[in-house]
Amino acid sequence: MGLQMLKKWLIGAGKMKVKVGVLALQGGVTEHLNHLNQIENVQVAPVKKPEQLNDCNGLIIPGGESTTMRKLIKHYNFTEAIKAFDQQQKVIWGSCAGLILLAAEIEGENNEQLALLNIKVKRNAFGSQLDSFIDKAVIPKVSDSVQELVFIRAPLITEVGQDIDILYQKEGQIAAVENKNIIATAFHPELTKSTIFHQYFVEKVKSLSN
Ligand SMILES: NC(=O)CC[C@H](N)C(=O)O
Which parts of the chain are beta strand (E)? Predict the structure, then answer.
């Protein structure tokens, strides 16, 4: 068995840890770290410097304020590092503001994007009285059990490319998608008691780690 194969087997058999970073420039970092810490065989780290990505297998870009986070990503030289992370087929999950930054396009804005995900998004898509709300739904690909979906000044995905799988939509409104190595959710699983979504993410990290 080659070294890569052996490593993959060890990770799959739960005998080797994968390392997951949470981009720690702004936003809901602690909540993601706490959820990841409840999952076995995962080493967890807040990521404050681009070089920390070198030994991570997965990265979460949390919710927060996408405008602020975009500036910090640029200021701390994360743009190229995150793009390289994606090119190495390492796994990235963007929640809410994280989803906005990963999108190829934002409706009505011309901002520089990481643009790693072939989707178009609309920021603050739910209007003022519905700024924040909790929905409940089953997301079959993730789990058979009902999950709480927490939306906070959430974006919506208004267009998806051909390489994108829709994980969750309601009445034509798309709120979660994935492609080969990226997951994006408009809602915040880190603000619920359940770690199911984080487990789904970690499984994807494991399946692409070698
Ligand atoms: N909870 C969130 O991450 C909100 C995202 C925020 N409305 C933005 O546009 O950046």
Answer: 18-23, 42-47, 58-61, 91-95, 103-106, 117-122, 132-137, 147-152, 156-160, 165-170, 173-178, 182-185
